[in-house]
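INFO  loader      accepted 1 record
INFO  loader      residues=641
INFO  predictor   begin
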Amino acid sequence: MKDFFARQEDARRQSGLLLMLFAMAVIGVGLAVYLVSMFAGLWFSAKSGAATGFWHPQLFLWTTTGTLTFIAAASFWKINELREGGARIVATLGGKPVPTHTQAPQERMLRNVVEEMAIASGMPPPDLYLMERERGINAFAAGHGVRDAVICVTRGAVEILSRDELQGVVAHEFSHIRNGDVLLNLRLLGWLNGILVVSQAGEMMFRGVRRSSGRVGGAVFVVAAALYAIGYIGYFFGQLIKSAVSRQREFLGDASAVQFTRNPCGLAGALKKIAGLSVGSRLDHPRAAEVSHMFFGNGLEDYWLHALDSHPPLDERIRRLEPGFDGTIPDVRPLPPPPAETVTYVVRPAKALPEPDSALSGRAVAALLERVAEPMQEHIDLARLLLSELPASLTDASRDTFSACAVVYGLIMDVDPEVRKLQEQLVETHDSPAVAGELRRLLPALDGLRPQVRLPLLDLSLPALRSLSREQYLRLKKTTGAISAADGRESLFEITLRYLLLRHLEPRFFPRTTPRPVQIYGIRGVQKECSCILTSLARVGHRDDNAAQGAFARGAMVLSEPKADFQFLSAAECGISSLDRAFATLEVSSPLIRRRLLAASLECMIHDRAVKIEEAELFRAIADALGCPVPPWLDLKEKRN
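INFO  predictor   done
INFO  writer      dumping tokens
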């Protein structure tokens, strides 16, 4: 199976191919509209006795330009409407948020599964929604990427599926988020809407026929019928393209989910229950057809033309998971409510990854790189272990909007009593006395956390923080900066936390119309930014400048190419502002450049054959900036006392 970056590059190329096919369809629609207009003109000319030819340059210019502008405007309007990402899609289908403190057993199980998967994947938990009225078994992920992704599950899925089966479905949806499918799906929605409006214009003209009479009414009827047919023919071919892409991405999602959970029976069991349920995976919502390519299972009735099916046949998907499947489908009935979640945290040894004190060869680095954004069952076990270490007070606080702010402040509080007192005063001044009081209540539990648990706790807090108002978010941002600067210096963890916080929350409150496209394809275009990142990583792992330069040189060798110049920078040249600028530039670099930089970062980290907590945390921030979620570092886990 291709690695994360190769699949990201495939998704980018596939987007380009789809855009080209879409452009061809739009041009075809424009030419067809010209032909309709020309024949309408011929019909009028014949009635009036005037002679006319088949080629009319001025008519061609007006009709094609008008049609293309009309379609482009409709597509842009739809894409702009979807800039809110997954939340907008969920609202379209009537999904409701799953409360963070829900006490319903099925919903609690679903939230626990999603949180475990998120921590194991190295990404914040997506916002979680439930389609209450849908009794079929289905789910979908939507958004522009990791930062604004949502997962929505039907009521039928949480009531009928077992925990292992639900985990398989959730892992499938996480793979769509990691592989870039969610962004591809949003683009498909916007582009197809542009073609569909041509047929909608024909429908509007049909209504106008009722108010017309004589030969004008007949002409309007003919033009309306032609536009309706042209629009739906274009939409038909758009649906063919969309369905073909969707079927292949579903196979990839199944394979990634099994690689993640190491439990093909869970995912196969969910698919068998869809086959055995009378309503299957169908959705009743009238707008389900619009987003049919996003669902885990086919949300619509099967088409007589299978080329239009948005999903592969169920039996084919099951046989790929269970080659010995004999076609037996279980009798499906809703499961009884599960008992309160009691998870036994048994961590399996991570034999697939090298130990820190072993010789880390190029082959070992390649193996680590292949597992970036590809979590394994060991990562799920580790995620459960990390979550089990959190006191109930912190777990509850991370799920509450008010208390989550206090959690963020507490994670960057200084150990020095005098500095901490000043920081508490800053919280009272910049935020509120109530939040400062909540902070004091949580500090004893926060002080007892192991370093490995800090970033997972931040991840758990992000869904609650997304519920802040814009004013509250700006207050959080200002207060975090103030307490970080209270001691006159900013630790690497403070830089990492603030960066991750801003990266995942800023788009929520200040969304872009569209994601930034890839603009840099050569390593020379980002050599300064790569130098900054590798220097920062080398200085974190080595206090001695000579050792740091050696680590930097090892990483730079991975990026080496003719005319590229990488320089070991001074500490002053690698501050938070420099890293921010570097990350912003790398956002528009190609997936293959990001892969090389991540490989270089790994080489830099393992130069001394050991990985510190601080290095792993900075590596997480680097990978996050590159749009690549990184699972928890297995070699850094410690046995609990």
